[in-house]
Write a structure and sequence with these properties.
By secondary structure, this protein is an alpha/beta fold. It has helices at about 15-25, 75-80, 95-105, 130-140, 150-155, 175-180, 185-195, 215-230, 245-255, 265-270, 285-295, 330-340, 340-355, 360-375; strands spanning about 1-5, 30-35, 55-60, 60-65, 70-75, 85-90, 110-115, 145, 165, 205, 235-240, 255-260, 275-280, 300, 320. It has 14 helices and 15 strands.
Length: about 375
Amino acid sequence: MTEVVFITRALPHYRVKFHERVKQLLAEHGVTYRLCYSGSALTEQSKKDETALNWAEKIPIRYFGSSEHSLLFQSIGGMVSRADFVIIGQHNKHLHNYPLILRSRLLGRPKVAFFGHGRGFQADDPNGLSERFKRFWASKVDWWFAYTPEGARAVSRSGFPEERITVFNNAIDTSDITRTLAGISEDEVAELRMSLVGGSGNVGVYVGGIYRHKRIPFLIEAAQRIRERLPDFHLLVIGGGPDAHLVEAAAAEHDWIHALGPRFGRDKALLVRLARVFLMPGLVGLAVLDAFAYGTPMVTTALPYHSPEIEYLRHDENGWIVDDADSPEAYAAAVTHLLTDEALRSKLAAAGADDAKVYTIENMAQRFAQGVLMALREG
C-alpha cells in the first residue's frame, strides 16, 4: 500500500480536522496517511493551542537554543524509511529537512514535498541570507503545497515548475464555527453581554496568539482612543502568548478591557458573539477566517509582514485595512467609524460570511489530497 507521511513540529487544535479529513480522502484511494509530530519549544507553549490525535505518532525532537528562532531536529528516520511520499514544513531551522531532501535526490525515494508559505512573509530583508537560503532549497523538492496563490507565485519565482505546485488555501474549521454559533441562543448572548460588558453593543474582540508581531501595545493604545469616542466601548482579548502580561496589566487598570486567556469551541464562540468588530492591528493570519465566520469584520493595518492569509481580506469589501500602520489614532477612527455605521459594518460582515464558505477545512483538505495523488502519479 502507498504510504504518505506528513511531518510537523507541533499539532495545533485548528489542524486536527484537516488531517483527519485528508486521512479519510487518501484512504479512499488506497493511500495510507501517517501524521508525525513532536511539540513546541517551551518559549511557545504559553499559547496553549496544542493537542494530540490518537492515530498520530509523536516523535522525539531536539532544540538547539532557547528562543523562538532555535534550530531543531526531529528524529524522522524511522518514520520515512518505508514511505513513498514525505511532506515537510518549509522552515530553514528544521535541520532534519536537509538529509531527507538529499536522500531523496540521491536515491530517488521517498518523494519529498514542502508545505509552507513559499517565502518569509515576516522576513526583515527579502534578499537577505535567510531568504536566499530558503529560495535555494525551495526548488530541491518534488512537489509544493502552498498556503495561498501568493505563496505559489513566490515558489514559481524560485524556479519551481508551476504544474507541481498545489495551492490549498490555508483554512480553519469555519463550518464548525457556523454550527456552534447556530446553537447559541440570543438569551445566552444577552445574559453574558449584561454580566461582562454592562449591556454594551460597542464591543471589539481580539482572538489569537499574543506576541510581538501582534502589536499588543498598539491595540491597547488604540482601544483607549476608541473608548474616548465611545464611552461604552469594551475590548475582549482571547488568546495566550508571551505578551499576555501586557493585556493582563491593561485589564487590571481598565475594567472595560477583558483578558480572557485561551478559549475554544462554544466558550470562545459565545464570547465573540458579543463583539461587532474584530481588532487585529498587528500581524494577520488565519484569524481573518475567524472574523469572517463570526460575522465580526476585521480591522487591521497595512503592515508589510502579514501572513499569507491576508490575501483573503479585501479592504472595504469584507474587512478594513488602515493605511497608516503606525497611527493608533487612525486605527481608532476606523474602528469607531465601523461601530457607528451599521450599514457599512453589515455589508462587510455579509461579504465575510460568504468568503467563510469558500475558505473551509473541507475545501482545503480536498485540494491537498488531490495534490498528493497528483504527486504520487508523477513519474
